[in-house]
Amino acid sequence: MKKDVTLTVKAKYVNLYKSGYPLISKEAIINLNEDTKEGTIIRLVDEKNKFIAKGYFGKQNKGFGWVLSRNENEQIDQRFFMNKLRDAINYREPFFNSLDTNAFRIVNGEGDGLGGLTIEYFDGYYLINWYSKGIYRFREYIINALKELAEFKAIYQKKRFDVDGKYIEEDDFVAGERGTFPIIVKENGVNLAVYLNESAMVGVFLDQRDVRKTIRDAYAEGKNVLNTFSYTGAFSVFAAVGDAVKTTSVDLANRSLNKTIEQFRVNGLDIESHDIIVEDVFNYFKYAVKKQLTFDMVILDPPSFARSKKIVFSAEKDYKNLLKEAISITEDGGIIVASTNSSSFNMKKFKSFIDQAFKETNRKFQLIEEFSLPNDFKTIKEFPEGIYLKVVFIKSLP
Ligand code: SAH
């Protein structure tokens, strides 16, 4: 690696970094040079040049790198990454021992002391996500550590940063023996088709595992379920396995049709009684109102931002209106599962959207249960932004 760079933390941010805040941000640093070479080791010091922490430079969203250590003498070398990965893998031991789940996250960025990096496990296959050029510069250490510590069929990767204007190399194989995709993984006994050789989205979002299980085990039976922003229909499949009488999956993307059929098929479910609709959900809501369709359960899991032909959706600005649409087609006593992965607002604010939406539709509601990230998505209290997932089960009342 190149020469270290010393960055001076503004006085009012010193305690924040001392107490464990991991993200290197522009506003906290006096002498940040945005053109620093990616992967450069950074020493954070106070204005008296006293050491606070060390990390690496890597542009990722609005951040400029991550703290890796608070020990001045610790070298960021092969041993460092071995130790981090070993701890991360040990922490997931209950998952490795599970008999009915073999898809989970083994490294969750800053939650495991490795900001900018995630690694997921899919039944013997590992998928590394590199979120900056900076962390990618440490790839040899990290891949070596993974090879040393894990038994694997293959390792794949996704470079989630811009490489010469090209964003994602679809089939980015690293080591082992290439898989035949889809591979079929298990989540709480349910099959899921996963493609590690396509886009950044592999077919399932592992952070919703507990929510899917809850829908199957406690809510689905006998219900007519609408799953909006359904992607590959994972919520619909769990509802169907939980004996929902019907599911309707709505997603704008063409790919969602075949992918959803596939998720039903790999579970031996008959798709005859299930609808899969490729359409803008906002059009679908209008259609449902016009046709007086109502549902016992409506699942809302939009992206934080989405641009379709007609509209721009931002969870922070538009979630309240999305809820109002959902309320209008939910049966009295029905359940709305409201989910967001937006890190730009917290649970309190999310609940204020829920409050507002029910007020403006002159209806009452009851909050039934809440979810955040599952245990394999390890987080640290010093970085609440990292606890992005918020899911609320709401009973809609007249
Ligand atoms: N709920 C899914 C994940 C959703 S990912 C799951 O649990 O697996 C977000 C999805 O929203 C993408 O598949 C995208 O195609 C879809 N999407 C974005 N904007 C949309 C819109 N306006 N109408 C319908 N789908 C939309």
UniProtKB/TrEMBL annotation:
CDD domains: AdoMet_MTases, RlmI_M_like. Residues 5-90 form the PUA domain. The keyword Amino-acid biosynthesis does not apply. Gene3D superfamilies: PUA domain, RNA methyltransferase domain (HRMD) like, Vaccinia Virus protein VP39. PROSITE patterns: PUA. One of its GO terms (molecular function) is RNA binding. It is an enzyme of class 2 (transferase). InterPro entries: PUA, PUA-like_sf, PUA_sf, RlmI-like_PUA, SAM-dep_methyl-trfase, SAM-dependent_MTases_sf. GO terms for biological process: methylation; rRNA processing. Keywords: Methyltransferase, RNA-binding, rRNA processing, S-adenosyl-L-methionine, Transferase. Its EC number is 2.1.1.191. This is Ribosomal RNA large subunit methyltransferase I. It comes from Pseudoneobacillus rhizosphaerae.
